[in-house]
Specification:
The complex is a heterodimer.
Chain A (H helix, E strand, L loop, with lengths): L14 E2 L7 H5 L10 E7 L23 E3 L6 E3 L3 H6 L3 E8 L5 H10 L12 H8 L10 E4 L18 E3 L7 E2 H6 L1 H18 L3 H7 L1 H12 L14 H7 L3 H15 L3 E6 L8 H25 L6 E6 L3 E2 L11 E2 L1 E8 L8 E2 L15 E2 H11 L7 E3 L5 E3 L12
Parallel strand pairs in A: 1-8, 2-9, 2-10, 5-14, 5-15, 6-7, 6-9
Antiparallel strand pairs in A: 3-4, 5-13, 10-13, 11-12, 16-17
Helix pairs in contact in A: 10-11
Chain B lengths: L7 H18 L15 H22 L9 H13 L5 H9 L5 H11 L1 H12 L12 H17 L3 H10 L2 E2 L7 H9 L4 H14 L18 H8 L5 E4 L2 E4 L5 E5 L4 E5 L16 H9 L5 H16 L21 H11 L4 H10 L17 H7 L7 E2 L2 H11 L12 H18 L13 H9 L1 H7 L6 H8 L2 H13 L5 H10 L4 H17 L1 H4 E2 L1
Antiparallel strand pairs in B: 1-3, 2-3, 4-5, 6-7
The chains are: A alpha/beta, B mainly alpha.
């Protein structure tokens, strides 16, 4: 697959702010620890990260390539050498090395890993983030409850739960961009909105009920409420100390993770932060080293930050991609798609930390890993940790009730 | 060589080359026009009366009056959006308004069908039933070729049963047989279960039935069984797609890997109903194609008639479009049967149906009705088609309409050079990717906060409504008075003049000098682009 396939989309609105605001500390004190409503944060490694170059290295073996391993804060668990900072924070999480899925195609696999279900012609399944927001609606939130940060072609969608749970996408989070609140308060804008009101009222004559159903006005009002809200400051990094911003990293992903933490503090239910270009059919080792240079400091900073702010108990953290990569190294020094035993990191929200689940064959001969974990079971685990019953059914338009997840929670991680 | 004139010949040669290249590059892409004459008014009148009778009966029984007849410009807008995916241009509206003949709507319908834009837009909307248009993994060239193949086929009046036969049963190189793209795409996605996925697509797209719901368990409402689904899938078991060539191998059969019961079983091809319609021999896919298009197969024609209705109204006659309920008894045919019979009687030419639907009374009703203030009465009005539905424009219609509303002339591929066309197509594609949210058939489409945010602050809208001399806003502001400018903006965006209140308000915002007028006009465009009236079909 060529890299241009992963086309980078430009955002329609870079959100930024320029107000001096009351410090976050005063409000923050109200929402810490276990009493806080729970949130989900997913780090999405788009393209299929290599488990051998991340959380499941096999140094010295025939499949291991040049990647060496380092010890981590979890005794007995080693990860790839490119993640020294994360290794020190790994005790907050657990490592699963035996994820299995039946989808090796990017599109189908991404659907599966975003929703916990294989694609079906019958149904549009909601994304995991949308499920969380549906099960635990936010009150008093001007922002959308589901947000996707970074460049991602397939952010969470509400599916049969409704378009109101589609993720708001911000391609370049934390960038100083257009000042949304100033734009809104500008007299010129107010003037335009008055014109919109007049045209709208005229059209509404004789169409009231069908128009209400379109939610057009509702969405416009909700969008305006968001654009004029103080809560928007969560998107701006201006009041974060420079040292912290440096720790996360001055790049789109690092800024995204920091914005993600702020959104969660604000009450956003689900945040997804994407790091692109893991589809390393060529130059697998060089490219993964490059990605690690961004992911390692940012993810480590996030875990330290969440722990310091007492947010880990109420935030489930998940880091994964749509599949892993082949043990066999191909002719272009790359690895190809591999859904038969790939890895993820998962923790927070009471999920048992320090666990190692599953193992892949160091010789690369056996396809099936030890203790295979199905995607739906991983998601049932995450949902349970967020105090959501995965077996809860929702009636869909085809008349068939569908559960939030068809899986069963893993007892080693929850309960 | 004359001394002192040695610069002349190289200069002349360079000038000739520059002129030649410029001329060549600026040549518009030509494509053959294919004017189909509109059917005669008298002939249509008889047909349409019979169709209308089906609806008039419901209205009489329900004891409410249908909505008033819509203005011709409203109808032009509906037809334009449905057939070429955009609101009518200023130029087209002027021409239409100046046309005083009574059958102008029929003639303009024929004109839109013959338009090059029809191939791209209408082809695109129908192609989505057969291939996944949003899947990045399918190469873009075959996707576009398939879209063009469908659009051109309909435009030329290729019989729909023949097109269906090609979709199901074509063999050979995909480059030569674009009809076979559905089959090729499913094999490309993965050989495992390709036959099953093809059976699902076939039953939904061509029969309007979700027989695949029975893949794992019997269908919840209808009587389809798992066995029937598997039998249908077996018709695709001989096909294969390798090296961009589709072939059939008569030796292979369908083997289902039943993981639930842990067995593998071989399945014989069997159609879900009326096996007598299957020809005795031939390749399996050809047998299936013949069964589908059998003259007695009502579901086949009802399915496409329903989709055409959906394309024109924004909502199909029967929902969902891929899972119709059983046809009524032959003694009591419904409106869909009437359309299906019309199709059969006219060589399965879809253009005929488009004309009939456009001429029908339900199509020509207003989308407003006093009863729409009442939550109880509203669904009754809608169900009996007593009012034209308000439905969401798709992202492609939205961006095309915005591009058209901010252009002076009609945006026609024939008029533009390749470079400009490519830029437009690229910007449309990006907008659609950003904007669209998916919903299954049967789920209510509704605006979302991310969409509203994009519109209100989006760079596309700002860019389009920003007035520069080259765009409509700039030129209108430069050469017209404020009143004319506002009027033009309303016509370009909403296909109507402003009301007194609207005109007064916007005029009050405008100023004396050109800059103020220009800015005020930008505001008008911004407002109109964000209005429900623009974003929804009505």
């Amino acid at each position: 697959m060529s890299m241009d396939r992963r086309e980078l989309l430009r955002t329609a609105a870079a959100l930024g702010m320029s107000f001096t605001l009351p410090g976050l500390e005063a409000r923050a004190a109200e929402r810490r620890g276990n009493e806080r409503p729970r949130s989900l944060l997913v780090i999405w490694m788009a393209g299929g990260p290599s488990q051998l170059e991340t959380w499941d290295p096999h140094p010295g073996s025939i499949i291991g390539g040049p990647t060496r391993a380092i010890k981590t804060a979890i005794p007995g668990v080693e990860i790839a050498e490119h993640f020294p900072l994360l290794a020190e924070q790994l005790h907050h999480l657990s490592v699963v090395r035996s994820l299995v899925s039946r989808e090796g195609d990017h599109d189908r696999a991404t659907y599966t890993l975003k929703t916990g279900y294989r694609p079906s012609a019958t149904v549009n399944h909601p994304g995991l983030g949308s499920i969380v927001a549906h099960a635990q609606p936010s009150t008093d939130l001007d922002l959308p409850p589901v947000v996707s940060l970074g460049q991602e072609n397939r952010p969470w969608k509400g599916g049969f739960l409704g378009g109101s749970l589609d993720a708001l996408q911000v391609q370049e989070p934390g960038q100083k961009g257009e000042n949304m609140q100033d734009w809104f308060r500008d007299a010129h804008t107010q003037q335009r909105l008055k014109g919109l009101d007049i045209v709208g009222k005229n059209f509404a004559q004789g169409r009231q009920v069908v128009l209400d159903r379109t939610l057009h006005d509702h969405s416009v009002q909700a969008a305006l409420r968001m654009m004029s809200s103080d809560q928007l400051r969560a998107f701006d990094l201006g009041d974060e100390p420079q040292a912290l911003r440096d720790a996360y990293g001055d790049n789109n992903f690092g800024r995204g993770l920091l914005v993600g933490r702020r959104l969660i503090e604000q009450g956003v239910r689900s945040v997804e932060v994407t790091l692109q270009n893991f589809d390393t059919h060529n130059d697998n080792f060089g490219r993964h080293r490059g990605h690690a240079a961004v992911l390692d400091p940012a993810f480590a900073a996030l875990l330290k930050d969440l722990a310091a702010r007492d947010l880990l108990a109420s935030t489930a953290v998940l880091c994964l991609g749509e599949f892993g990569r082949t043990p066999r190294i191909n002719g272009a020094d790359g690895r190809d798609h591999w859904p038969h035993g790939f890895s993820c990191l998962v923790g927070g929200a009471g999920i048992h930390a320090g666990q190692l689940i599953g193992a892949t064959d160091p010789t690369g001969i056996r396809q099936e890993p030890e203790n295979p974990v199905k995607v739906e079971d991983l998601y049932a685990t995450v949902l349970t940790a967020l105090a959501i019953d995965p077996a809860h059914s929702v009636q869909t338009s085809i008349g068939r009730p569908i559960q939030y997840s068809s899986g069963v929670p893993l007892t080693r991680l929850i309960g | 060589m004359l001394p002192g004139r040695s610069w002349f010949f190289p200069f002349a040669a360079a000038a000739i080359i520059v002129v030649a290249v410029t001329w060549f590059v600026s040549q518009p892409v030509r494509s053959p026009q294919n004017q189909a004459a509109a059917p005669s008014t008298a002939e249509m009148a008889a047909t349409v009366t019979k169709l209308d009778a089906h609806f008039a009966l419901h209205w009489k029984e329900a004891e409410f009056e249908p909505a008033a007849k819509a203005d011709d410009l409203v109808l032009l807008r509906r037809v334009s959006l449905a057939l070429v995916g955009t609101v009518p241009s200023l130029e087209e509206i002027r021409e239409f308004t100046a046309d005083s003949a009574p059958d102008r709507l029929q003639r303009w319908t024929a004109r839109f069908i013959a338009d090059r834009r029809f191939v791209d837009y209408f082809g695109f909307s129908l192609a989505g039933a057969f291939i996944d248009l949003k899947n990045d993994d399918l190469e873009i060239a075959p996707r576009l070729r398939f879209v063009a193949w469908i659009g051109e086929g309909i435009q030329r009046g290729v019989p729909w049963n023949e097109m269906a036969r090609q979709i199901i049963a074509s063999r050979g190189a995909l480059a030569d047989e674009p009809g076979a793209t559905m089959v090729a795409a499913e094999f490309d996605a993965g050989k495992s279960e390709a036959a099953e996925r093809l059976a699902a697509r076939t039953s939904r797209a061509l029969l309007g039935q979700r027989i695949d719901c029975a893949q794992c368990h019997d269908h919840p409402f209808a009587d389809w069984t798992q066995g029937q689904f598997e039998g249908l899938a077996a018709y695709f078991s001989q096909a294969s797609y390798r090296n961009a060539v589709i072939q059939d191998d008569q030796r292979t059969s369908l083997v289902i890997d039943d993981t639930r019961n842990n067995v593998k079983r071989t399945v014989q091809p069997a159609v879900p109903f009326e096996p007598a319609w299957v020809p005795a021999d031939g390749l399996l896919r050809e047998q299936l194609a013949a069964w589908l298009a059998h003259p007695d197969n009502r579901r086949f024609r009802r399915a496409i008639a329903n989709r055409l209705w959906g394309a024109l109204f924004g909502r199909p006659l029967v929902e969902p479009v891929d899972d119709l309920s059983d046809p009524p008894s032959l003694e009591e045919p419904d409106a869909l049967d009437f359309l299906a019979d019309e199709l059969a009687a006219h060589g399965h030419d879809l253009r005929r149906l488009i004309h009939v639907i456009v001429a029908s009374r339900p199509f020509q009703l207003e989308s407003s009705h006093p009863g729409l203030a009442d939550v109880v009465l509203t669904p009754k009005l809608e169900k009996s088609h007593a009012v034209f539905p308000v439905t969401e424009l798709d992202a492609h219609q939205l961006i095309r309409s915005m591009q058209q509303a901010t252009a002076i002339g009609t945006i026609l591929p024939e008029r533009e050079n390749t470079y400009v066309q490519l830029r437009r197509v690229e910007s449309r594609y990006r907008f659609a990717r950003d904007y669209e949210h998916e919903f299954s058939d049967g789920e209510e489409a509704a605006d979302t906060v991310p969409q509203a945010t994009r519109r209100l602050s989006g760079y596309v809208i700002r860019g389009l409504s920003r007035s520069s001399f080259w765009g409509a806003t700039g030129r209108i502001a430069a050469f017209s008075s404020a009143e004319v400018g506002i009027d033009q903006a309303f016509i370009a965006c909403l296909s109507r003049h402003p009301t007194q209140d609207e005109a007064t308000y916007f005029l009050s915002q405008s100023g004396k000098n050109m800059n103020q007028r220009s800015r005020a006009l930008q505001d008008v465009y911004w407002t109109l682009f964000n209005s429900a009236e623009f974003c929804w079909n009505h």
